[in-house]
Amino acid sequence: MESYRVDVYNIVGGEYCIEADVGQKVFEIIEKALTENRKVIISFRNVTRITTAFLNTAVGQLLRDFEEDEIKSKVSYEDITDVDRMKIRRVNQTAKLYYENPERMKNTIEDILGE
Amino acid sequence: MSRFALLNIRPSFEGYQQLINLYEKNKGYHLGTLELSIHKWFSANLSSALGGILDKLKEELITVKFSQMPSKTEEIMMKNGFLYYYSYPKLKDYYHTTIPYLKLKPTDSRTFFNYIDKDLLNREELPDLSKAAKEKMVDSIYEVFSNAQIHSDTKNIYTCGQVFPRKHVIEFTITDTGMGFKERIRRSFGKRIRATDAIRWAFEDKNTTKQKISGGLGLAMLREFVILNKGKIQVVSDNGFYNFDSKGETVKEFYGSFPGTVVNVQFRTDDPNSYSLKRETDNDLY
Questions:
Q1: What residue segments make up the domains of chain A, in order of their start?
Q2: Which one is predicted more confidently, B127 or A15?
């Protein structure tokens, strides 16, 4: 299977990956490549700062549209720090829970009211 | 003419209550003139919250004038640039203890990034803070900023900070004048809850008001860092006050409401923690 390299710095147009709507642009390219049955290498070369808000849209949404096993086998990361890997892990784990049951959020509000 | 006096304003419940009183007593005073005096002390980082309130009043064409303030306060608020917005000149900050007051559009991220890099991250006054702690601190600030961008629907975001070298502390404040936590929950889930419950809910890991996209990590991660750094977080949103520090979490309700949200974070600058993390492979990311 051919690989497609997603150069985040180039898509974002700079070293800061902060905003959710910029993450959406990255997501759309990853999604397109996966739909075309490509392996995807997401490169964060020259990126200096990444927020979870950016990652929620850029990669978290993949867990809504693709099976986890498919993502694991096709998506890899390059040039990323340990701290940012930790953020990706938390974003993915949050996304899994969220997309399994989007109604969960309503229940958490009931929980805080019921305390 | 309306006169209002702020007395000894610090980042505390009482300090924020006075700022809320300023707003509540003067809103609706269409086309009037407000003469504002400051007495004893005003914590410079709270220029962020004051800027937000005064702009809300100016939306009602209220003219704001400063009538009196302690010379030390005036000097600091000229150094951090806040009073420049009220026709005062700027003063050079030779001691580098101010982190400038910045008022920016929510879309103007680039200005904010440059400001954080130049005025916070690359300061020479943070020698005892490990590189990892600095990174975590800046990450936390970006998360708060992106929350204001995404959720509040605010016209402007106001930020300001202050360095206290002898106390080894940085205070940094981000204010928006959009909808608060309570209103976001009402719009997303149709639930009416108290502002204090809404803030506590937002700090729980994985809780988000975003529709169709997961989230809710930013504030949880900020709190985790503040625990390790032994710092402090305060949130003022509508009539809710939330304080989190080494003693735990406290909530209180104000008389009246802040027209938006203030997040004030205190970071310890003598934090040598290296915040090392185990190396994760791509497969560990799920």
A1: 3-114
A2: A15
Q: Compute the radius of gyration of chain B from its Cα atoms.
A: 19
Choose among B113, B147, B189: nearest Cβ to A109.
Answer: B189
The whole-angstrom separation of Cα B167 and Cα B38 is 24
What are A95's two structure tokens? 């996304």
Q: Indicate the burial class of A13 (C-beta count within 10 angstroms; 0-12, 13-18, 19 or more).
A: exposed
Quick check: B191 and A91 CB within 8 A?
no
Please say whether the beta carbons of A32 and A66 come within 8 A. Answer: no
pTM score: 0.92
A:B CB pairs within 8 Å: 127
ipTM of predicted assembly, 2 dp = 0.84
What CATH number should be reported for the domain holding residue B15?
3.30.565.10
Place of tokens 């799920």: B286
Residue of B nearest to A68 (CA): B286
Contact list, B283 vs chain A (CB under 8 Å): 72
Give the contacts of B276 (CB within 8 A, at least 6 positions apart): B132
